[in-house]
Design a protein that fits this description.
alpha+beta, six-stranded antiparallel beta sheet, Nuclear Transport Factor 2, Chain: A, 213 residues, globular, single chain
Length: 213
């Protein structure tokens, strides 16, 4: 199915950290100086903030759904470079998009991820997350490996981060060895190989409109 990541079965747990690892500015941990957090600390800090929202009685229940989602949405917006991620998933076909088309693509892609995954975050049921030490990928990029423990099963999730304007910012999530960015990019490439940007936008508009609220 177009735009359906094969890892959606574990995304209920993963997006809890996507809100922490995928795009970012966060509150510092106790004893840390703002801006001095390591990538691992950035992720852990955001996870704690997301958990706080999910566990806060003020935001529980359908009556507070929009307020709860706005809180979660604001955390995601703090950590995700949506412009950079959108350009990565379009890859070489990005140059075909006009400025206005790219802006609409970015907004639709953000809504697609939000509608699919915010619902899954809200069903978080206490799965344990283990954070491991960062791995240096280059002078400006690191990976933060984690494991999600679910019924004695370990799900490896790696958060790819880069330093941009002095801040660590997420640019990809690798779930069980499969890149979220590459997964979506392959689907967009399949469409854009024979179709125009406007054709992809039409498909995405319908896809977003059809998702449950």
């Amino acid at each position: 199915m177009i735009f359906c990541c094969r890892q959606q079965l574990v995304m209920m747990q993963v997006v809890l950290i996507i809100a922490a690892g995928c795009l970012f500015t966060v509150f510092p941990l106790a004893g840390a100086v703002a801006g001095d957090n390591t990538p691992k600390q950035e992720i852990e800090s955001l996870v704690n903030q997301v958990l706080h929202v999910l566990q806060d009685p003020r935001y529980k229940g359908d009556a507070h759904r929009e307020e709860r989602r706005q809180k979660l949405r604001s955390l995601v917006e703090q950590i995700f470079d949506l412009d950079g991620v959108a350009r990565r998933v379009l890859g070489r076909y990005g140059r075909r998009f006009s400025k206005d088309q790219f802006q609409e693509f970015k907004e639709l892609f953000s809504k697609l991820l939000e509608k699919i995954y915010l619902t899954k975050i809200e069903h978080y049921s206490g799965e344990k997350v283990i954070f491991e030490d960062e791995k240096v990928l280059s002078p400006t990029k690191v990976a933060v490996p984690t494991k999600i423990i679910e019924n004695d099963k370990e799900i490896p999730v790696e958060y790819r981060m880069l330093k941009k304007n002095g801040k660590w910012i997420g640019y990809d999530v690798v779930i069980e060895g499969v890149s979220l960015v590459k997964n979506y990019r392959s689907q967009f490439y399949e469409i854009l190989h024979n179709k125009k940007p406007e054709d992809l936008l039409k498909i995405m508009r319908k896809k977003v409109a059809a998702l449950p609220q």
